[in-house]
Amino acid sequence: AAAALPSPCAVPQVAFVSPAPGATLTFSSREVDGQAFLSRQELRVEVSGGDGLAEVTFLLERASRPGQYELLGTDDTAPYRVFWRPPADLVPGDVLTFTATVDDLRGHCAAAKVEGVRVDVSGPVPGIRGATVPRLIRSLPASATARLGRALTLSVAAEGTGPLEYQWIRDGEVLAGAEGESLDVTNAPGHYIVLVRNRAGTAVGGPTVVTAAGADGVPGE
Fold first, then answer.
1. How far apart are CA 190 and CA 197, in angstroms?
2. What pTM was estimated for this model as a whole?
3. CB atoms inside a 10 Å sphere around CB 206
4. What's the half-sphere exposure (Cβ side, CA atoms, 13 Å) at 52?
5. Is 130 exposed, middle or buried (0-12, 13-18, 19+ CB in 10 A)?
6. Is the model's pLDDT at 212 over the cut of 90?
7. How far apart are CA 35 and CA 49, in angstroms?
8. CA pair distance 193, 178, nearest whole angstrom
9. Do residues 133 and 200 make contact, with C-beta atoms less than 8 angstroms apart?
């Protein structure tokens, strides 16, 4: 390209097409070689405004796990959607909230939610029988300060069917080699999250907003 793309002036807007608020999602099953496979439901949003270059990330929150989010997937091309089936450890009658966040990758974000969704789990057990999606038992703080010359340690604790894998992300970029329960941050401000995953699903810890400060704790030095 001869020049960088101009930054869009309009903030993109996002709205759910499916599911509807308060909907009950049902899943059919098919059998192959004696194994039952559950169907998937489309989670879909429409994005308006912006310049058509964006990505949408879908998250799940359970009423039984308030404040904890599970990553369902990211789509970077319209129609923006993911296909979802419930995890094996979903509690019957649990109330779900789906969140979709659109990012135009140039500083503009917007989010939409659909609440009160339930799942009919009267059929075959979905997912991996007996497996539990990671759950954070110690999450990240909302904010932290990294002082010059001192390492700030961010850490989480999680439970779920092992083995658990960790991946730290700063400002949307995967940090190579940052794959443990803790991360040492040395004067590197930004938005940090950690993904905790196993074969049953992925939990999201954070975000933590890390600001930089001088050795005496004064911001911006």
1. 23
2. 0.88
3. 20
4. 1
5. exposed
6. no
7. 45
8. 11
9. yes
